[in-house]
Batch of 2 targets.
Target 1
Amino acid sequence: MTGLVSPVQHTEDAASAESRLQSLIVSCDLGASEWIREDAIAKRLGVSRTPIREACARLSSKGLLEHVPRRGYRLPPLSSHDLNEIYPVLVELEVLSIRQRSLGPGGVAAKLRSLNFDPLRPPKDTAAFAAVDFAWHDGLVAGSGNRVLVTHFRMLYTRVSRYIHYYWTEPDPQTSADEHDQIARAIERDDTDLAIALLRTHRRCGLERIQRLIDAGP
């Protein structure tokens, strides 16, 4: 029979739609407070409305979309209040990962150096900047060897990914690279307190910059 979609194909379509729609949201390709028009998004992604509807429900559970009864889904506005609720928890998970690192100081430091910004090959666009930054911080948390910690970090990072991407609209990779390197060096020396202090400063500066951008408006 033709025209039928197998359960496997349906699942793949829904997963692909979710991933691609999430990319549009995170990259700020869709504006804050913008309503999701299922027909337009389906046409843009080349799928039917059903996987888009399912993707919206999943992304709403992740906090990337807001569900309004009888209206549909929309992107939540970028808000300092929302950011200030999530960001500190994200930082504390990173702090905990430094305390629990399982690879040994040298192993974690070497991994972080391999993930850091390469000054000879700087990222070409905002998405690339954000990807490198995520990879570095994710590597820091993964160094804990704690799967629960990693899972919760990635879940919260997804929540703030729009804000992180917004930060990289004014990229400063050299400053981030230097700060990342200082943290890695402290870990390599097994100076946990210094590594945590440097991480908190690094994250606080990033938070303040994002807040300034939000306050300044589009």
Note: The radius of gyration is 19 Å.
Target 2
Amino acid sequence: MTDALPQIHAKVLPGPAGSTRALVFMHGWGQTHASMLPMAELLGAVGTRYVLDLPGFGVSEAPPIEWDTFAYARRILAWLDERGIAQADLVGHSFGGRVSVQMGAHYPDRVRSIVLIGAAGLRPKRSFRQRARVVFSRWLGKLARMLPAALREPLLRWREGKFGSPDFRAAKEPLRSILSRVVAEDLQEQARQVRAPTFLLWGREDDQTPVDMAERYKSLIAGAELVVLEGQGHFPFLGGGAHQCAAQLKRFYTTVAP
């Protein structure tokens, strides 16, 4: 990171009088604080809630360079310092889950507990066909770099349309380069280093970070608890699911991480 840290916007929801608990919500890729706000609003009895726009999303400034998730974690650490928050209860969805794992691994004294909801960060299990597509896409990228611009640009555009994810196609620089870097990460070792009480909350129908990823996280993070919500997908906290997720978080904060 450079000295010029991007500013972070946070929606602050005050907790009960005298409460010192700080819940920090970090959304998924391509989302903003608005996606997690309905669930956060239901947790007023738990503590003060800080619902963030991560750098590059919503009205928060974009990173000045190509960050990885550890750089995001360092920025969140600096943001905690700016706010005078000694310890935080992290709630990370998808991409925000990656950042939460990095926080737990590298700054354990600043993390009181972690809730991972449909968290990314472990390499997905791919079929032979899926692995072949990845290899071919990478080969096309290498080939394009050897071609003159007149041929390189059309080939890269075709590769993007054929193999790029919706998130990749929608992203602009520097977020596009950040996304390419982030999806190549494997946070197994970081997950093993997490010592904070951890709660894994997943939707049974999650097709972006399937339940097997939750089970792998559970095996990696000592003492982690897993609850799978039937009939829910990658965004179990949207709509009526907000109440269901909030009830699970209240139970966790009351019984496991009081």
Note: The first helix runs from residue 37 to 41.
